[in-house]
């Protein structure tokens, strides 16, 4: 009796805390509380009581107390996080490529040779000469627009004052069109000569493909900038001379900072030449100051990534390409497919490094120096639900040029969306072939077809972009990555490398005087 009394007392009785007398039954049932004061328990007291109960009765916790689905089940209401799987994939990617690095060095040794590359003195001289000569065509475009602006000022003084409340007469419209035809012919001859002359020199006189590519890219950029400069000033000149009712108020607000023809100055053109955009505007959003620490960080990234691209290309891409030559010559399709799959990883890493170096590092450094505030050079293209989204988001400067100066003008003239898109991709395909085929001295049409055949892929993935379900967008993203990493760049790199080897052999002197590796990769 004494023992039972003692046990019952120890189980049932609890000291009074915070005005509450706690009593717990011997069967472990819910506590009975006698509230004191306001008659209720506060949250802290309730939680303290529950912790005390769990500590005392360790084997009675209700583990299954509600209906819950599995984490990966479709019935779950909360989307699970896959951060751990992402970390695992990164680790596996690093481990797998580290194994390839060790295997590559064991098979081929160190292939990096700073003094082996055939940078001919004549190639460097021509490249530097063209670097300073190509922008002269922008100067010619400025002189053409300067003459047109002075003519517009004179016409403005002689014609009836236009304040945006009346429309131009038929004679005024015909006169403007006649003047524009002369200006258009002058601009067309200027940009055509610039691009044609550069293409001729690169194709026939600059041997090294890297120097040729940089030179040709510079010429294409100036060609696009000159075209934008001419088309934009044409419309501004028309709005200045013959504005229809309401047109003056419809001009972008930022253009009021430098209205036509005050924008036709050498300083204005020089800024456009250096600005990281292909679309001309009389004025751009500007930052207040230059952050030089930011500039040097971005330039450091460009330098490091350039070294990485050079190292990866020479040490890993070149052996794979070299070992593919015999397979291509013998049309061994299974082996060619295996080479493509192996090259896809290397080319993707090189492309991603080049993308970051150009669009994130270099363009941001250039924008900081020029105080160019609009720095949306790309969007999250890696999440593209289809090829159309990719081409609209990965290279915003080029996309904005074609949308503003090719696609929209054609649509406003009554052309269909399909024809306007076909024109955009045809022009882009020609420029891609010039950029790739001319420096490699092999106009084999692979770059042209690679761009032109994007249209049917865009049509295939367009319905997936419009689907509201996540599965459709996921499928579109998979199609994008497969076409991008396997069917696109690796195949183009393999074809142009094969064409180069068939015509010249390797750029590297070391490769020219040494037999290719015989051991398989």
TrEMBL record:
The chain crosses the membrane at residues 83-102, 128-148, 182-204, 210-231, 299-317, 348-367, 444-462, 474-499. GO terms for biological process: triglyceride biosynthetic process. GO terms for molecular function: diacylglycerol O-acyltransferase activity. It holds the Pfam family MBOAT. Pathway: Lipid metabolism. It is found in: Endoplasmic reticulum membrane. Belongs to the membrane-bound acyltransferase family. Sterol o-acyltransferase subfamily. Sterol O-acyltransferase that catalyzes the formation of stery esters. This is O-acyltransferase. It comes from Cercophora newfieldiana.
């Amino acid at each position: 009796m004494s023992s039972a009394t003692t046990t019952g007392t120890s189980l049932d009785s609890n000291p009074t805390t915070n005005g509450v007398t706690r009593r717990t039954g011997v069967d472990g049932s819910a506590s009975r509380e006698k509230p004191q004061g306001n008659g209720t328990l506060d949250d802290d007291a309730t939680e303290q009581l529950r912790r005390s109960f769990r500590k005392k009765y360790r084997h009675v916790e209700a583990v299954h107390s509600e209906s819950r689905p599995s984490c990966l089940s479709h019935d779950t209401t909360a989307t699970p996080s896959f951060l751990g799987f992402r970390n695992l994939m990164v680790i596996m990617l690093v481990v797998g490529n580290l194994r390839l690095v060790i295997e590559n060095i064991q098979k081929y040794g160190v292939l990096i040779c700073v003094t082996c590359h055939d940078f001919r003195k004549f190639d460097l001289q021509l490249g530097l000469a063209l670097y300073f000569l190509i922008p002269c065509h922008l100067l010619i475009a400025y002189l053409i627009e300067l003459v047109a602006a002075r003519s517009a000022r004179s016409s403005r003084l002689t014609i009836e004052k236009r304040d945006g409340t009346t429309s131009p007469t038929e004679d005024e419209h015909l006169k403007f069109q006649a003047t524009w035809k002369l200006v258009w012919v002058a601009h067309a001859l200027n940009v055509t000569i610039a691009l044609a002359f550069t293409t001729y020199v690169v194709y026939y006189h600059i041997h090294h493909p890297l120097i040729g590519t940089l030179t040709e890219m510079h010429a294409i950029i100036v060609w696009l900038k000159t075209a934008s400069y001419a088309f934009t000033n044409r419309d501004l000149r028309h709005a200045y001379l013959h504005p229809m009712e309401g047109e003056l108020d419809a001009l972008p607000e930022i253009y009021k900072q430098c209205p036509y023809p005050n924008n036709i100055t050498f300083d204005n053109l020089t800024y456009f030449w250096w600005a990281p955009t292909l679309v001309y505007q009389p004025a751009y959003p500007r930052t207040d100051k230059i952050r030089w620490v930011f500039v040097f960080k971005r330039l450091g990234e460009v330098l490091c990534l350039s070294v990485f691209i050079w190292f990866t290309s020479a040490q890993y891409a070149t052996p794979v390409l070299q070992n593919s030559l015999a397979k291509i010559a013998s049309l061994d399709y299974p082996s060619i497919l295996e080479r493509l799959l192996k090259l896809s990883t290397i080319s993707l890493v090189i492309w991603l490094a080049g993308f970051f170096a150009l669009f994130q590092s270099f363009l941001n450094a250039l924008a900081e120096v020029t105080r160019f505030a609009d720095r949306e050079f790309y969007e999250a293209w890696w999440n593209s639900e289809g090829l159309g989204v990719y081409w609209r988001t990965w290279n915003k400067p080029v996309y904005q040029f074609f949308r503003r100066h090719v696609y929209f003008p054609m649509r406003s003239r009554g052309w269909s969306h399909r024809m306007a898109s076909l024109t955009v991709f045809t022009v882009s395909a020609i420029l891609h072939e010039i950029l790739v085929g001319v420096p490699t001295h092999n106009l084999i049409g692979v770059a042209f077809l690679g761009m032109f055949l994007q249209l049917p892929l865009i049509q295939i993935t367009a319905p997936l972009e419009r689907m509201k379900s996540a599965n459709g967008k996921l499928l579109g993203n998979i199609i994008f990555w497969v076409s991008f990493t396997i069917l696109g760049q690796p195949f183009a790199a393999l074809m142009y490398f094969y064409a180069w080897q068939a015509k010249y052999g390797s750029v590297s002197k070391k490769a020219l005087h040494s037999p290719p590796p015989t051991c398989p990769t």
